[in-house]
Specification:
363 residues; binds 1-O-phosphono-beta-D-fructopyranose; 49% helix
Length: 363
């Protein structure tokens, strides 16, 4: 296999995979089953590690926005190390454990913590027959989204769509659900020239640092975008809430720092002001938004305009397409293999020796 071939195929396959996941979900009748089973859960806690934790933050934002339930995201390590701080009272609470591999030790141990407390859990994974299936009370195995690359790309966006569909079902948001199901075909059309444009942009530029900026439900995507840059291209990636970037980080602005702006519709004006300000300070900018107006166009060195009619939350997944490709092409340009980042393994499995030396009994 050539370097990054799996990641490239998996990134490009996303709109088709999203459709396959919706079909799979309908065949398994997950949404109605889960709505019935978990209808009394008032608080939803999404738990994961790495990309799966960032996905948890987007899922929690979606659940909060689409339902009358409370929702938040917690890294699995916090469940283990600071359970009282992280979990609170846990009344009518459903922990949702997210793990592509279904094997990450911290997620499995978090499942154990919930089990010991007598709290029922839901899990979502992409690979069958893994330990998470035994640890959780109900596990969704989203096999069409599984991957061969070490880095998570389509598994992230696909699991996000399933959790958004679930949130829409719990919240009785039939219109949102319909729009979400129509999004993949529209996104495929909107994104068709993005691989070429990102590749050409990467070929023509050299950056020392990367910064990802977003607000609200988009913030988890900014974290994931930075992680893709780091994993696939061994680059320094920082993340800020867009308006937070003014409060101290501005000295790093210059042509050699690429600022990624994930512009929302809800707070477009305020975010666009930061974009304009940073452009005036000499930043190089990569802007993703649904519809750009004059200011965003004038301040963007690379612009991806989705132009989708899907409601804002239903557009989260396609926002990641460009940043994933940016990580991949930058890694390839550096002569790396984005499918096999150095020092990384596909799954973080902690062995017994490490557990014995860990400070907390749960680890
Ligand atoms: C989570 C994860 C990945 C990361 C690396 C190690 O895996 O942290 O996000 O890229 O491969 O594992 P999982 O629990 O979702 O399988």
């Amino acid at each position: 296999m050539t370097s990054g071939a799996y990641a490239l195929a998996e990134i490009l396959s996303q709109p088709k995979t999203w459709n396959a996941c919706f079909e799979f979900m309908a065949k398994e009748n997950w949404l109605e089953e889960l709505k019935e089973r978990f209808r009394n859960k008032r608080e939803w806690i999404f738990v994961g590690c790495g990309s799966s934790y960032y996905l948890a933050t987007c899922a929690a934002a979606s659940m909060t926005s689409l339902t009358d339930r409370r929702a938040r995201a917690i890294p699995a390590s916090e469940v283990l190390l600071y359970p009282d701080l992280a979990l609170g009272e846990m009344k009518d609470t459903l922990p949702v454990l997210i793990s592509r591999s279904g094997r990450t030790s911290e997620v499995l141990r978090a499942a154990q913590v919930f089990r010991e407390r007598g709290i029922e859990t839901l899990a979502i994974t992409c690979s069958t027959g893994q330990p998470l299936e035994e640890q959780a009370d109900r596990t969704l195995v989203l096999s069409p989204a599984d991957e061969q690359s070490l880095v998570m790309t389509r598994s992230f966006t696909s699991m996000l769509l399933v959790l958004q569909a679930l949130a829409a079902t719990i919240g009785g948001r039939a219109e949102f659900l319909d729009a979400l199901k129509q999004m993949p075909d529209a996104a495929e059309r909107a994104l068709h020239d993005v691989p070429k444009r990102v590749r050409e942009f990467v070929t023509g530029q050299n950056f020392a640092d990367y910064v990802s900026l977003a607000q609200g439900p988009f913030y988890g995507l900014a974290c994931e975008a930075a992680l893709k840059m780091t994993e696939m291209s061994v680059s320094y990636g920082q993340v800020f809430h867009t308006l937070e970037f003014r409060h101290g980080a501005k000295p790093i602005v210059g042509p050699e720092t690429l600022l990624l702006f994930l512009l929302s519709e809800t707070s477009y004006g305020a975010e666009c002001e930061v974009l304009e300000e940073m452009k005036q300070l000499g930043a190089t900018t990569f802007v993703i938004c649904n519809r750009a107006e004059r200011r965003a166009r004038a301040s963007a060195d690379l612009l991806i305009e989705l132009g989708l009619d899907t409601p804002e939350l239903g557009r989260l997944a396609p926002y990641l397409y460009g940043p994933q490709l940016m990580g991949l092409y930058t890694g390839l340009k550096k002569g790396l293999d984005p499918d096999h980042p150095r020092n990384l393994s596909r799954v973080v499995e902690l062995n017994d020796k490490r557990s014995e030396t860990a400070e907390h009994a749960a680890l």
